[in-house]
Amino acid sequence: MAHLTRFGRQSLRTAGHARSVPTARCASSDAPERVTLLHAEHKAAGGQMVDFAGFDMPLQYKGDSDLVKDASSIKESTIWTRKHASLFDVSHMCSVKWTGKDAEAFLEYVTVADIKNLPMNASTLSVITNEQGGAIDDTMITRCSDHIYQVINAGCATKDLEHFDEQLGKFGGDVHLEIGWEKSRGLYALQGPEAHNVLQRLVGDQLSIPTIPFGGAFTANVAGAPCFITRCGYTGEDGFEINCPGDAALDVWHALTGNSEVRLAGLGARDMLRMEAGLCLYGNELNESITPPEAGLTWTVGAARRVEGAAPFLGSDIILAQIKDRSLIRRLRCGLLPEGPPARTGAVITSTEKEPIGVVTSGCSSPCLGRNIAIGFVEKPFNKKGTEVLVQTRKKYHRALTAPMPFVPTSYYKL
Q1: How far is it, in rounded angstroms, from Cα 341 to Cα 209?
Q2: Rg for the chain (alpha carbons), in Å?
Q3: Pairwise CA distance, residues 280 & 40, whole Å
Q4: What is the pLDDT of residues 224-251, one digit of tens each?
Q5: What are the angstrom distances between the C-alpha of 182 and each of 90, 158, 283?
Q6: How far apart are CA 272 and CA 305, in angstroms?
Q7: Are 294 and 332 in contact (CB under 8 A)?
Q8: Peptide bond preceding 381 in cis form (omega within 30 of 0)
Q9: pLDDT tens-digit profile of 370-403?
Q10: What is the model's pTM?
């Protein structure tokens, strides 16, 4: 029988989609209701707190703490991550554990992932789709020996879980889902080229970090606590996401911050890093009307999911048709190199004749490149590399060139 473990005492209210990083707010009666187990740590380290998907989270850190030395501005924090290692609290994201003999088949029905052929202890980015092929959310999925581990976005978690509940009612079978969230465990992202040295120091001779490929997963004790660790991240750099028990959350955090290479980083740097890496943010580059092929995520649809006779997934008829016949796709996600002011979310993209051809979904001044970059959806054939377009900002038109992504080369670890 399908079974969805209920959400305990947590209030599953609609938090809205994660969009562009918000600005810092003053304390008010509208303060977010939810905090992670590290909330006091963030405040003590000079965290500038913002409301993000209903959680009180650090945008950046300011002050004279050694934990933010040379990395207190968003620009400095971004550059520090690219050169050293930064630690992000991502406990606001929702982690789920799937068990039961039909769990694999169910997940392959509600996502585009080829879990059956995913190696043991390996992870993949996937997309939760609706019947029209649109993205309900993007997600990380890890195949383990006795369960499937999944991480979903904080801003989408409520609707994701409701979607799973609805689909389980139709699917049936032996499927069980346990939910881990901000009060039950810590979830941390250690990112940057020196992250592997830090983690190796902490796990000691339990295993050799260089033997773990990017996307690999393993269990190891950190600060005496059993942690489930995946080599992945959202920055374009090598890194790890560390899931630790709630009663050890502070000990593990302190073990990680007790290394000279590590600085604390917040939502601001995380957004800059993912834009430089050309990665999607749900609510910007992904939503329920954008399909994986349109978003440049065709590669997430496993080869075995595309063959004739393969088990269908939600929206598979539309998505597979787009993969087979690219003429069905009218718009594509692409990079932009704008001149003039930064191109912000929602800015209209036009041809040089000022005919609307697309929209900017994310934009910033890149800390690492020292120039403006943006991501947007552009109609074909204007998406081709090096095409001159215009971006409308404050009723003025500014020249931009379409460009490949990532803007900053990625540094994912390879064996």
Answers
A1: 43
A2: 21
A3: 30
A4: 999 999 999 999 999 999 999 999 999 9
A5: 9, 14, 22
A6: 33
A7: yes
A8: yes
A9: 999 999 999 999 999 999 999 999 889 999 999 9
A10: 0.92
